[in-house]
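Lab notebook page, bench 4
Experiment: in silico fold of construct C2
Operator: M.H.
Input chain length: 170 residues
Purpose: comparison with the prior construct
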Amino acid sequence: MALPEWLVKEIDGVGDHPAFAGVDELERGLRTLAAGYPEITTLRRVGTSRHGEPLLCLTIDGEPGDPTALVFGLPHPNEPIGGLTALHLAARLCADPGLRGRLRHRWRIIACIDPDGLRLNEGWLAGPFTREHYARHFYRPAGPETRWSGRSRWTTRTPTSTRRCRRRRR
């Protein structure tokens, strides 16, 4: 099955990036969009990470009755493409009323759900993109995947990012 032409154009419009975005760049991007599109956006702090970083959520309005979509980047802090993807989607939705109308949602976008983990990966985000450099600056939390399962036999506390997303989905 072929992709719709409008979606192929959206994909083709994604630009190149010389490096991945860190916590500060993702936060700046959300703040810039909120300032540039105040008639359709709201930027709120929806929580705080374990180390005191703000968890920011950009809401992009839809039409009354539209369902709400939650998008969040970096559920795994060593996968920074998610932050750039969330930020790109937010920018496209803000800039293009036709795209908002086509997708018919109210959007809640958190560009970085794990700023503490991303900060620990910032050493490799700008390169050089070699295995050695990546390995020397790599961080990923140890343990099982518990983001959406909440408590498990390995943990007694649901991760902060999971609690924030669960609250936003309601």
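Observations: The first helix runs from residue 5 to 12. The two ends are 34 Å apart (CA to CA).
Next step: discuss at group meeting.
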